[in-house]
Amino acid sequence: MDDDVYASRQDPALTVTFPLVDGPGDLAGAEILIWTTTPWTLPSNLAVAVGPEIEYSVVAPGAESAFAGRRLIIGSARLAAYSRELGEDATVVATVTGAALGGLAYTPPFAYFAGFENAHRVLVADFVSVEDGTGIVHMAPGFGEDDAAVCAANGIGTVVPVDSKGRFTAEITDYVGEQVFDANPGIIKDLKARDLVLRHETYDHSLSALLALPQP
To answer: Which of 61, 111, 180, 209 is 20 to 30 A from 169, comparing alpha carbons?
Structure first.
C-alpha cells in the first residue's frame, strides 16, 4: 500500500443538538447532544444510541452560554469537557440512566428521512462509552457497522444516499450531486443557522479509514 494511506487529514467535528419530541418530567423540552467527526453523515441520521448504565445529565447552560435558556442532555462524565460551551455556572437539573432515555423520539437535524419506519428515537447499545464526545452516538446505519447492527436489531432499515463516486443522491435534495466531503461546509453552515451546533472543531482522521465509502 502507498505510504499516503497512513497519512492523516483534518476534518470538521461537530457537537449538535437533537431536540426531544417529548419526554417525561425534567426531560420535557430537552435536547440530546451528539458528537460526530463525519458531519456529512448527519443528513442520513436515523437514530441515536446511549449506554444502558451510563449516567446522563440534563444541564441548564449558564447565563453567558450561547445556549442559555435551553436544557441539554450529555453524559455526566463529559460535562467537564464542555465547560467552556456550557458555562461555569451551568446547572445539572437532573440525572438519568441511558436505559431511561431508551425509546424517546427526537427531531433529526435534517428531514430527508422523516417518517422512516421506527427511526429517530433513542436506542440503547452496549458499545456506547463516555471516553470522548458526549456519550451519545449519532447513527447513520449506511455508514457504520455498529450503527447498522443496532438499528437492524431495532427494526430500522438502512439508507445509503451516496453514489459510487461519493456524491449525494436525489434523496438529499439540498446537496444532490455534491461529493460528501465537499458538502461538509454547507451542512455545517445550515446547522449553525438553526442554532443546533454547540461546538465546531477539527479532528484528525486516518486516510486509510476514508478511502472507501459504503456502496448502495
So the answer is: 209
